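Marked as duplicate of an earlier ticket. Keeping the data here for the record.
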Amino acid sequence: MANHGVEWLPDLRQEGPMTRKDWFGIGYVSAWVMIWGTVGSLIDFPLLNADVYVAGSVGQITTFLISALASIILAVVLYPRVLGYGFIISALKLDSESSNSNQ
């Protein structure tokens, strides 16, 4: 498989259509990006209004970096718990898909 001249990069292309598990992963990451943006903005807004820093400054970048790190940590910590909720797995039919791919 082609890796476009970068030998150390693995070829991550998948044969066939995307699975429900793929879509769940994309949705999970997308939800956390929205959570990060919302939380970062809720923290940022009062700081901008109080003139703690100005838009585009190091202070604003720091606010969004810290909220991003917190979101990443929470997303990684909560992921196994989310997968442990049987109703989510069965509602999305993720359990039946994994058993079919083993056959």
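See parent ticket for discussion. Residues 78 and 95 are 19 Å apart (CA to CA).
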